[in-house]
Amino acid sequence: MKKENLDKYYLSMSNLCVHNPLFKAKLFEYFDFDIEKTFRAGKEDLKAFYEFNEGEVSVPRDFLAKRDVLNPDKIYEDYRILAGKEGVKYITYEDEKYPELLKNIPDFPLMLYYKGNFNDINFKRTVAFVGSRKASINAKEAVNFIVSGFLGSDIVIVSGLAEGIDTKSHKSALENGLKTIGVIGSGLKFVYPSMNKKLYNEIENGGGLIFSEYPYELPPLAHQFPLRNRIVVGISYGTVVAEARIKSGAMISARLTLENNRELMCIPGLISNPNTEGIYYLLKNGASMVTNSEDVLEALNWELQTPDKVETPHLEGTEKQLYEAIAIEAQNMEDLSQKLNINMNELMANLTSMELKGLIKQVGGNYFVTG
Hints:
16 helices; single chain; alpha/beta; nine-stranded mixed sheet; three-stranded antiparallel sheet
């Protein structure tokens, strides 16, 4: 079957049972991942499905009524118009770009709408950062300190584009030359909170991806954000929690992390801060404590990729010295000037020349890494 003939059923299913992803995922599995059969399930099929799952997965009462008024062909054509006007794209469960890790959660989304691009997104190096919307300055600084330790690497920071820790995580990623993935709790028509409009644009325009499982015009509603958390966690190999009350969305993410057998990590904070109650509860119950980027790498059994030996056969003089220094670790202009005893004018001229040749690139302000 042609891709568009399949995709019209994925798009149609995204408009059904938007707040019951477990039902959709289990029904999809029941029909051996055949999206057309899933969409066209009849009354007897649903009865058999319910019995197969021994009543543990409920069937929404209005599924058939709402399904029967949908026209998959019209939905597909409407989407094509939308894509042309708003730049909204999508991936389905069957697409190569669909993250394999996400398929392992029980209530995986059948499809994801997105803005941005997949260039340089390494889905094998994803780590989530979650925490309080009313985060303290200390917590935000701690997140920035940890993320900055991944400067210029292929590690991808995943979060939910909410206020507080989410926003700081995405911004720190971009400032340090990292790709970042934001998973939102509404359709892509909405920027929520509105204060993050610039951040949305930066992610869309090269910083990474913004994912949503919801139809384009679905507004942000409170009960959609906990559902969004399962995707943030599901797409990540581990979750770092920075401030969380006992009853909070971050604690939901922590629980999901453990249920999915992923690595749970916590940043310690002031014991007098109510937002650390959840942190110390998790630490007492086995979560890893992280205070720097090396702790995250150790917990996930990752290494930052750095060359054992720098070879610069086609460079001479100052450019060769600069390349060798930058290849060892990211450097800023002040450090390079002092270490190599080069005045700023000469330094800037050489760095610009090397950037134009594609030998190095600038990340995180005045830091440089090899290109």
